[in-house]
Amino acid sequence: MTRGLRFRLTASYALFFAVLLIGVAVLFRARLESTLNSQVRETLNEQWAAMKGYLRIEKEHEKDPDEKAFWYHDTEDPDEVTIVLNIKLISLITDANGKVITEGEVPDQNKAGAPGPAVSATYEDIGIDPPAQIQARVAALLKPNTAKSFWTERRNSEGGRFMIRGGVVWDQRHRLPYYVALGMPLTRYTNILRGYTWIYAGMIPAALILSLLLGWIMAGRALTPVVAVAQAAQRISGSNLSLRIPTRQSGDELDYLVLTFNRMIERLESSFQQMKQFSADVSHELRTPITAIRGQLEVALFTAKTTEQYREAMFNALQDTDRLSQIVRALLLLSQAESGQLVLQKSRLDLCEVARDLVEQFQIPAEAAGVCLTADLPAACAVNGDRVQVERMISNLLSNALKFTPEGGQVWVRLKPSAERVEIVVEDTGRGIPTEYLPHIFDRFYRVPGSGTAPGPEQGLGLGLSFVAWIVKAHGGKIEVDSTPGAGTRFTVKLPAEGVSAETMELTGQPATLA
After folding, report:
1. What is the three-class DSSP state of 166?
2. Which of helix, strand or coil describes residue 425?
3. N or C, where is the chain less crowded by C-beta within 10 Å?
4. Which residues contact 167 (CB under 8 A, 6 or more apart)?
5. CA-CA distance, 363 to 375, in Å (whole number)?
6. Each residue of 428-482: pLDDT tens digit?
7. pLDDT tens string 336-370
8. What string of DSSP letters covers 203-250?
């Protein structure tokens, strides 16, 4: 199960979701901690500002050797009383040497008893700062262009956290600096952070379990078409290649996969049909000469009595053997060409020279058949091609034109060069090809049945135009055929001109079809 795509998709989704949740939790916790820390500092800054309004450091009497800390506020105003009590709850006041000063008694305000040292019990639990440390801080705070406050975090005997803000204040006559430290407990903010951490820590496993369930369901639904494709592929065999998978009409990637799979099956079906047809054609074409050879030899064996009869039987058998050899060689050559084993030897080729030579070679058979063979060639016409294959292509077209043109007819060979392509036109005034046969003339072993203008089907291998189609395709060209029964046939081959690619010719030229 762990190797299945559904499991891997679900695991990937859950892992991504877990990383996302943890990342959001960490970022949010850091943001929350920063916000709470800012609130604590803001509160201590407010208390510091209020402290400077209520605190006076001065001598109680002119004869007193030391100055004391006095808190001046309206004892009848509960708000002022609360503010002063909050300030003094966690506080420390020392001189510049770190010695804790005494809190003075303000008349009519401190009736509860004689005041003691200017340090709260909570701050004593936290720990009074060592004198050397206070001296260093005061010296640092008094330097110009430096911060006027000192922040630190301390813990009491029970481990409770406190934020301490230290700074310098001056006595009433602004002659002596004093060190004042105010504190604020962080218990409430620590509890908020701890509660958030525990809540989120409990939510993450639940969210992961939910994401796993949802991911498993969603992955299963998303892979349903893929499973259908796999099941359909298992049902496909050589006997039911017509099977197709219906699309969901959603236009997504899975529909594209189904369409691609169906097109692949169509190509396979077409290939199987071609293979079946090819096998049937080969069997038929090879069986005919073999049967003829066997018949000739059996006749000679059982009925021939003279040397002349034996010679005639052997001559006919040799003719059929030669025909059989031609079929085998043609099939082998065409098979090598279509499988890519026959590599073209391309070079700069003057089509005018090639066409002129071939027209001269076919003049004798044309005159023997009573057909007028003419050529309309420009001064020069160059392409990048394989001379042997191009000659075979034009020869096959000329051979067919002469074969199916009656006595007194005409055959033309024309070259029409342009900037993008070269057109090779072979036209005749022969019997023509009926429209219903045009789609099949390039198939292997296909022979157009005879029309009313000619007696019966013409003899031949039926491979010549298959070679022509392959040669045109191998050179990046197109071939068109236009035929009218009783009037003639015109083959037009379009090859890229020298220095022009097949894609450029297709974009700039007129569309051509391989009939």
Report:
1. strand
2. strand
3. N
4. 48, 141, 148, 149, 150, 179, 180, 181
5. 11
6. 998 888 888 888 888 766 777 754 433 333 455 567 788 888 889 888 899 999 9
7. 666 666 677 888 889 999 999 999 999 988 999 99
8. HHHHHHHHHHHHHHHHHHHHTHHHHHHHHHHHH--TT-TT--PPP-SS
